[in-house]
Model the fold of this input.
Amino acid sequence: MNDLRLIFRYGKPYRRDLWAAAGLIFIECIFEMVIPVLMSTLVDEGVPSHNMAIILRQGGLMALCAVLALITGLLYARYAARFANGFAAELRLAEYAAVQKFDFANLDHFSSASLVTRMTTDATVLLNAINAGLRPFVRSPVMLAMGLGMAFLLSPKLTIVFLITTPILTILLTLIVRKVGPLYGRQQSAVDHLNSRIQESLTAIRAIKAFVRGDYENEQFNAVNTELSDASTETFRYAVLNLPAFQTIMYTAIVCIMWFGGGFILQGDMSVGQLTAFLSYVLQVLNSVMMFSGAFLQMTRSLASARRIREVLTEQPDLANAAEPVDTVPNGQIDFEGVSFKYNAAAQKSALSDITLHIPAGATVGIIGGTGSAKTTLVQLIPRLYDATEGTVKVGGRDVRDYDLTALRDAVGIVLQKNLLFSGTIRDNLKWGNPDAAEEQLWAACRAAHADEFLDRMPDGLDTDLGQGGINVSGGQKQRLCIARTLLKHPKVLIFDDSTSAVDTATESGIRRALAELTDVTKLIIAQRISSVQSADLIVILEDGRLHAVGTHAELLEKDTIYQEIYYSQMKGGDPDGE
Done:
């Protein structure tokens, strides 16, 4: 319930609609409760005496009450829909905003498929719970109290049937809910697995076709699809017991009332009209309890969704600004002082161990090493995508933890290993680097990244639509656009994480020459090819998360066996520029 209490705070802007809806339900209940009393008078006084005046008067009043109940019901639907949909929109917005604040470490806690499910399916579950549950949760207690009161006034003796059947029904429904509750959590987890499989297979559809793995993927999808089907079947197998339990109690109560009520009529203790009114109250009360039980099951499911949404909303970013953060990075000098790092505090081995390194402002530094040597991890500590577990990372002579995160990341441009472009035009994507960039600035960045070579051939130039994820351009073209986008930031530190792997060596050489003109920018280049880093001022070799060697190309080629091995394996034939 604490989860629901936290979640429903996001409905605060629409609380007037909620109170209006609840008030309309209460008014509707009053109109419905009056109808059996009017009907009792009609049956007892109008029908036996054939008094048309009484019949028309009571019938007219009953029709008026029914019409007023209908009108209040329609108004309720309007306000309830406004509250439910407004609440769901606020909730999705809050979740999305929370995810945008996550650090890389936070994102490691959730799969992307799970986050999609939490922002869509789980939010919709809560929306449906409100739509299906608001009316019963308000109406059932009101109808129960009014119905018992009116029934007691008609026949205190017959009211005992209520007092016996209602607790029995409550106990049965409680047992069902206790059984079904955990199963809804399992069902939502199965939805996560299904979404994850769909997302992965659609993203990799070309690879699946290239490797002719369609049958294998069908089997994998069938497994998660069966998991969801089995979880849903087991959940609803118990959930549907709700209706038989209600019907059993309801028909038992009706039989008992008819039996004992008939006896009271024969004894003269009760009239036919009173018994008819009493039965109306019984049906209204039991129907409200039935609606309440259905809403209760929906709420049980919503508890599982509320817990999952609460986990997103209450996830605290691992990185926070200092009490008085510095908002200006003076230069691109970088220092690693005894830095070690673990992705998980419980991990036995560090990804980085005891890194001490000084990089002067404006220098060009190449970083090489085998797969898994933590090259990417090292550079991710510079813009504080992660915090060092031990030691200190400094930029511009200050600990990165002293800076305002936005200011630090604005000063550090990073072209990620995985090139990501967004739906929209080339211009839209480039302006991620600088929203205010003028046309000439955009083209200057494209020329530096050698993207102008293919942009000139695009039908609409910078206004060419890239499609979802940049599907309309090749891997090398993506890389060059990402480089241009990062150059538009005019950062003090520029990081290339294997960002020219998909371009030919001649194009890469041209990009290196353009970058060499940025003398006031510190450049870090992670690469697999010696040709990408051999002209760097400093080359860093990482091995298994440790600093193996640091030096210039000439120094390392003379003294370091690992560098020599890489160099001679790559440089047989041709010169560094691929000419």
